[in-house]
Every structure is written in structure tokens, then in C-alpha cells.
Design goal:
mainly beta; four-stranded antiparallel sheet; 60 strands; about 5% helix; about 50% strand
Amino acid sequence: MLEAKTMTSVIIALLISWCMQVFTTATVLAVSPAPKILRSAPVLRHLDMNNSLIVYVSGNTCSVYDFQNETVRWSREITQDTATNISVAVNAMLFRDGQGMVMVEKDTGKELWTRSEKECGELTEARFIGDTGWTTAEYDRAVFVYDPTGKAYPQPQDFDRATTVRVLDWLPGKEVLAVGQSTVHLQGKTSNRVFFWDPKSGETREGYDVESDELHSYLHPSVPGKLLLVEIKLPFGFTLKTLDASSGKVENTLENVMEGLSLYNLKQGGVAVLAHEWEEEARILNLVTGDRKMLRRPPGHIFRGDAYAAADGRDWILSQDEDKHAWLWAVEEGGTPRKVMDGRPYCFLPDRDIALQLPYVLEAGDGAMYAYHLETMERTARWTSPPEYWFHEVVCREMKRALGCSLEENKHTGMVSIFKIESSSPICTFKGETYCNALSKDGRYLIYNSDPHGKVFLGQVDTGQYFLLAEQEEEEIAYVQISSNNRHVAISTVGALKLITLEEGRVKRSSDLETMTCPHHQTGLCFSPDGTRLLFMRPGEAFLYDVEQGAKIHTFTEPSRFLPAYREEEEGMVSGALHQTKEVAGRFTDSFKETPRLSGAFSAAGNHVITMAAGKILRVWDAKSGVMLHAIETELPQKRNTEGYINNLWKCSENGAWAFAYNADHFAEGTLWEVGTGRLVQRMPLPEGAIEDVAVADDGSALYFHAEKNIHVVYVR
């Protein structure tokens, strides 16, 4: 046995060790801030002027805000499917997803009833009928109406089940419903038959037929006692006919109504509201009389067409400014807006494009783009343009110049322009396609193509001059890159990998580094940090080139094989069984697996090359000798989502020092790795919601997730 003195020493040593561990843990926790969420601004879904309420959705939460008292009345957790399927009536709100629906009191959020008719298939639409508490629900195989208590009334058996049944509105007296059924004739015409249905008694009677010479025509509710026949005239244009709901008599016709109108713009109460982000005004059309109102969009504001209301003989609409505040406007000349909801807790507008470009996040859309610093969320840059332009989240390294595109002047080729901070006039404009562009890191050069299968040009931003780089014949451009020293341009097409050497902004020489015949034989390309080498990836292999010599240095081969990232739709019993057999066998043998598509990057200041495959394996190669230094293998499952995809992905820091592996469907934890050593740094759960993008800090201290329109900042321990 140990002596008492010895035992005491052991106990003291253990206590000291334990205290040091506690102290170390506390120190780590102290220097590792808790994760934070930078939230998108709410989606304004409804405006109630009579009760001073705004219904909005933020992330997975729907809230009712009292803007008179500046308080949130109530909030409710919802799914992403439900977020775009919310109906609002005078005293109630209806939430639906593909399975069923829930009715709640608008004032308190108290749940009134829940319904789901699973035996009738997927629920495709649910909405209120007029201004009552009655609702209609359209399933794959049946239509129901529900009274304010939730009692269900299924569609009568004598309705033609071969055509679409749509409950329209109550007839005057609100006891009988007008129900429409649409049939398309072989002659390209449409017949809309209207029935009358008393849901309480189940009685039906025939009404009338509404014929249309247009292939696409639809009946919609309008003001009480009226129906609206919407005729879509291709390629664009609408004719709107107001009908007496009882007789079908046409009472009014509006021809060539509004460019940009869609069925989503039609509101209950007989109005259409157009308030697109790219429009210079909000437009309101009375669908019965044809009267129009217009409100000019002030700088920095975006009108929200869903948040419209008519009250006290006036039309009202909400806007959001660039600081995310919500403003209430009367649609009339000379009106003064009133701020009704503060935007300070929010960071991004919900319908903007978001891109991570560390240490910034870009918020881009029509007519404006903003850059925010991710740590402070202070706005560091603002680019504006005429409203017909949109921004592509393409900026130079110094965050001074940004790329914008427009189809206004030439709808066939488009226009590509470069804008500088705080100026809506472009520095230069080039005629070219709007989807395949590259801007040099210093913002001095632009690569663009004149049409999807045509000429590729180099534009000098400061002078407006442009030079032909390549001319393709029926060959689509896949990837374009400019080296950091502006000496080389790489263009990957279906036919070849082209390397173009520049001298003072002009073409010095052009050569084909690689020839290809299959459009899938290209998965990416990138230049080394000093611009002297080019890495080109295709399935199963990557090539490293010396761009000064135009010569291939090394070939890096990926020997592993994986299940196909996407499983094709099963067209029949035999092909379905074959796909399933290959899927199961592929988990035990490589015979039914395929060569993975590779992505790549440079690391260690260009001395190392990284190749990444299927979110499963990362290999580090010595750029000088071509020898593999080590490999990193993850445990991400090869599991398919409901759409048949396996979404295992890699994301590297810009300097290639750190790599993050994750499954975008949340089937496993994400793992952060130190590329140079192959060390696993940390496992971490992923933020909730669909992950759009991930960025890794160059020092490995934090990860940034773009998920469900929010930015999640997760600090590494």
C-alpha cells in the first residue's frame, strides 16, 4: 500500500492536473466566440391597414408585427415549403405544405384546426375563398372546401375528374360557389365550364361555358359577384375579361394589359400589383375598370407587391430600403412614406443574390450591389446602376469595380458593363453575352463572349478597347480565367483548352493545350498565385502546365471510383431494377462506380497542388516533382437525397491551407482539415437549412455558411 505522504502527493498532482485541464478548456472557450447568425431581412408577405399589421417571414419563422405599437404579436415556426404558401384573410391565416394545412387566428396565432387528406395525394394549393373564413384545397385527386371550423366538404362526384377543378368564389348571398373546369381543345382553344355548388347540401347545377380563342386561359376570382377570364397571348401579353359570376356575361374587356404581368400579380379584390425590383415604379391596375395608379420608386427602395392593401379609399404598399427598414406608402403623387418596421437586426434583402468573398459578403440584385464586412457587418462598398442592369457578384480584389449586365439595348446579345463605387454610370460597356464573363483581379481587364457559341473578347476597362481572343464554331464556353499578373487567359471549351498569352493587353500568341470532344471532359481550371502555372481538371485527372512554355508538366490521376453523383430517372420496371441493382452492387465493388469529377486548387504559395474528388478524398501533390505527398479521406456517406443526388462537397480556403468536407443534405457532420499536414482539425454539425455555399478563412479560424438566406459564422476551436 502507498504511504500516506505518497498518497497525498498523488492526490495533489491529480488536482493540479485537473485544474490545468479546466483552465485550458476555459481558456479555449474564452477565445472561441460562440457562432453567430447574420440574418436576411424579412420577406414582407401581407399588409393589413385596418389593424396596422404586417405579416412577414424570416428564415423558418412567420411573424405578425403590429406597426402601430411596434411589437410582434406572435411568431410561428414553419418549414421552407410553407414559407411561400401562406394565405391571409380578415381574421385568419392559412399555412400549407405538400401534406396538409393549418388554420390560425391572425390576431393571436392560436391554432384553430389542422387538415390533411393524404389519401387524395399531394396538396398543391390552398387559399381563402373571398373575404370569408372558408377555404379551398386542391389535392392531386380531389378538391375540398372547409368551413371556418375546419369541417370538410369534398367535391361532388358528378364533377368531371378528367379536368382541373378550381373553386373560384361565392355567388352573391355566399351560399353557392362558382366552380370552374378547364378543357383544352385540339384546335388550340380553351373552354372554361362553370358549375354552381352548394357545399352544405352537396347540390350542384350547371352554369355556363366561357370559350376562349387562346390556348392558355384561366378563370380567377375578382370583386364579389364577378369573375375574371385571363387570356395569355403568346409570346407575351394579357387580355382580361370581367364576367358576371352568375350568368357568364362579359361586362368589360381590357386588351394588352401590362408587360410583365403574371398570374401571381392578381390579388383578391380585383386588382393587379406590379412591383418588380427592376421596375422604376409600382403599378396598380383595377381589373374591372382599367384604372391605373403609379408610384415612382425612390432611390435605394424596393417595393413589395405582396404587401399591398386597399383601405379608406386609398391603395397602400410597403417598400424596403437598402438599410432593410420597411416603409409604408400611399400610392398617390406627393405622398410621404412612413417607416413602420426597423431593419437594424437584419443584414440582407431576402430576394437578393448572396455571395461569400472573404472577408466580405456581397448582396447583389437589379440596380444595386453591396459589400459588407463579415465581422462588423458594416457596408464597405455600394455599386449602383440603371434599373435595367443586374449584378453578377463579380468584383475586383480591391472591391472597387464590379460587373453588371443588361439586355435593355440588345435583347439578343446583351450588354456587359463595369461600374465603380457610388456611380451609376458605367466606366465602359461592351456588347456581349451576360453569363460567361471574367474580371481580372485588379479590375483592368474583362473577358466576355459575343454569343453562346461565338467570339471571345478581351476588353480593356480603362480605354474601352477590345480584342478578339478566340473564335468558336458551335462550341460552348465552359470556363474562363485570367492570371493574377494579367499575362495569360485560359479558355475551356467543348473542343479544346486554349491558352492565350497577352502583351500590354493585346494577344501575343494562342495555343491549344488540350483537345476534348466530350462536354463533360472539363471540371474546372485555375492559375497559380504567381500566374506562371495552370491547373486544368477533368474526370479522374488533372493537368499542370507551365504557361510561359505552353507545356504540360505533370498529370495527377485519381484512382478512386465512386457512385454516380446523380441517379437518372427510372423510366420503367426493367431499367429501374437495373439501376437499383447497380446501386447496391456499387457499395461492394467498383465495377458499377464511375470516375469522379475533380476540382482543384494551389496551396503553400503555389508549391503544392490539391485535387479533390466527390467530397470523399483530397490529395496533396508536390508541384515541382509531381509526387503525391499525402491524402485526406473523409467518412461522408454516399447517400442520395430525395431527388437522387449525392451531395458530398469540398471547400478550400483561398490560400489552399484549409479544406472543409461536408454533405449538403446534412447526412453527416462536416470536417475541417489542415491541408499541409492532413490533420483533422474539427468535426462540427452543419447549420440548419439548405446550404448554398461555404467559405473558409485563410487562417482556419472560422467557417462561413450561406444557408436559407442567412450567413452562419462558426468559429473553430
